[in-house]
Amino acid sequence: DGVVVSEKVKSNNLDVKESKLETEEKGDEEESTKESDSNILDVSSDYPREKHISIQRDFAELEKLANLKEGEFTTAASQNTDVQVTDEKKPCPLCSEDKYKACYSHKLHRHLLNFHWKVSVEFEGYRMCICYLPCHPVKPNVVGDQTVSKMGAHYHCIICSATIARRTDMISHINRHVNKGETESRFITVPAPKNSHQVLKESATDVRVLPNYSTPQKTDSYFNPKMKLNRQLIFSALAVLAKERTPIECLDAFGATGIMGLQWAKHLRSSVRVTINDCNENSVSMIQENCHLNKMKVKLNTKEDDNDEAMGDREDSTDTIEVTKMDANIIMHLRSFDFIHLDPFGTTVNYLDSAFRNVRNLGIVSLTSTDISSLYAKAQHVALRHYGSNIVRTEYYKELAARIVIAAVARAAARCNKGIEVLLAVALEHFVLVVVRVLRGPASADDSVRKISYLIHCQWCEERIFQKEGNMLEENLYQQLPCDCHGSMPGKTAVVLGPLWSGALFNAGFLRRMYFESAQYGLDEAQSLLKTLVCEAECTTSKHYSVYASCEETKQEECGVYIKTPNTSPESLVYGKRKSDEVTRNTNKRQKADNSAEHPAFYYNIHRHSIKGMNMPKLNRFLNYLSEAGYRVSRTHFDPMGVRTNAPLAQFKTVLLKYSTPTYGGGQVEDAEVLEEDRSGAAAAVVTKDCPPHCAAD
């Protein structure tokens, strides 16, 4: 028996060697394809496999499979020579002989381009072309006593071994892999060459990115060019903090390509000690390459036990960027920082407790939330699950999203006996950015928690008001609303939203200093937005801001703490200490009252409340009309047609109606005059009822 088995093994080995020699000599593309497919089916899933021939990077590689020389048919066409004279007929490497017969080069080129390349599915720089080889059998058709089986067109998945017939199904199949985090191909044995890595430049910082840098995935380094404004705002906030104390420990908890940390270290130099962290090994290697690309020193730290020693080693080398590979929660638990930025993929609520655990007093925590589907009330159940807030879609949904995030930040800080002061809150199309200053102590935590309350929102007229403080239940919450929709409309007209942050969203002094830093470093996109934010923080329509004038206005204290500015004297600085005399407490209370008066909550959209059949005035003119009526008014960055004002909605509509012009033609002048009289009478009645005494006297 042993002799028989050995003879069988030897014969099998000889057969395999002979088959290999035959395939090498013949060079038949179809047989090599079948052998590679049979090998793929036999090898386990963990073994690295060769990619299918229908998966190619460039069209030139697809032409090489058909033995087409690049430019062979184009040169012949330009020289007006006949390709068929010297050319040989060649088969298509992705079609069987029954499907497509061998043809000349110019016809084969058109066939590959139109029937294979243009209908391919793209993923991570690769093209999955349609394949007509006998890889995907179609269900047999029974004709009489014979069974006819056909081979159909199909796609080979680059991630798994599936073969899918329809292109739309293939795209859905790839998307399911991406949603599960399965983005590593088991067919690609050789990584992409470094030449395929693109080098992008932003704010004098070079970054090498992957070909799929614009697609957010869990396993790849993600770089979004649309977040340039976000990075400039965070850099301006860090530059302001660097003027207060030097050097500061700053952390980019989710480095990805390391673009943000590189900008900090390259422009602020010795004022900051940058730590870039990421839990993905590919991202860490990408960060190291980008550091060397920008001629920055790198110190790699992947151990969780040696963080204290790493801090001591970095005291002398302030220009070195430390790159760490660990979970963001772990590094924030182990080390203390002055500035922490959180920018995960989605919500930031999973990292808030760790961020406020060891952040230093008067430090800054900035966070970017990109889960806009839940924050903008498109997925309300997700917002309730992540933030514990009930929201609906309103005209001020972007500010509602910012207040939801700040409420979650305030609760997380209070659990660590810390309070917050909101320095900046920005909600744009792709993200919600919140920058807060950390104040240690249970008293500060209690003050922050008291600013979290519920909002009563009328669904008929869009009027809104924060619920009054107190633990006693009120019999009718509708009485708190300024409108009378509940009495005139049937059923329930209002909903309770929240809990939300009811305090101010901006710090005017900090925003001025951010504008000064953005002008100093040439951040053009951030300058225009910061101008709008300063106007919104002060609730004014003035847009004339000088860099030097704004710097002079920074001689003030924030949060009851002296802040170092370019114009303050060193003798007046007391770092980390609060003033305890009674005069200072009264001053702080008065400043808080002024800030609440200067920054009204929420805004109104002028298009939402326009009158049908009337042409409303221009936005800037309408702002002047409201200002002349005695109300604070400004534009808002949340909505280009939004108006932030402390005027009630009834007075807002009255002023809008008063200065709107009818759209009637010449034959309806009499009706227009009657409507004008009605408008003037209604406006006078509402003005005497709702206007302040000084406005009615005018």
From TrEMBL:
Pfam families: TRM (PF02005). Residues 157-177 form the C2H2-type domain. Keywords: Isopeptide bond, Metal-binding, Methyltransferase, Nucleus, Phosphoprotein, RNA-binding, S-adenosyl-L-methionine, Transferase, tRNA processing, tRNA-binding, Ubl conjugation, Zinc, Zinc-finger. InterPro entries: SAM-dependent_MTases_sf (IPR029063), Trm1 (IPR002905), tRNA_met_Trm1_C (IPR042296), Znf_C2H2_type (IPR013087). The keyword Transferase applies. Residues 1-45 are annotated as: Disordered. GO terms for biological process: tRNA N2-guanine methylation. One of its GO terms (cellular component) is nucleolus. Residues 7-24 have a biased composition (Basic and acidic residues). It is found in: Nucleus, Nucleolus. Its main location: nucleus. GO terms for molecular function: tRNA (guanine) methyltransferase activity; tRNA binding; zinc ion binding. It catalyses: guanosine(27) in tRNA(Tyr) + 2 S-adenosyl-L-methionine = N(2)-dimethylguanosine(27) in tRNA(Tyr) + 2 S-adenosyl-L-homocysteine + 2 H(+). Belongs to the class I-like SAM-binding methyltransferase superfamily. Trm1 family. This is tRNA (guanine(27)-N(2))-dimethyltransferase. It comes from Eubucco bourcierii (red-headed barbet). The lineage of its organism: Eukaryota, Metazoa, Chordata, Craniata, Vertebrata.
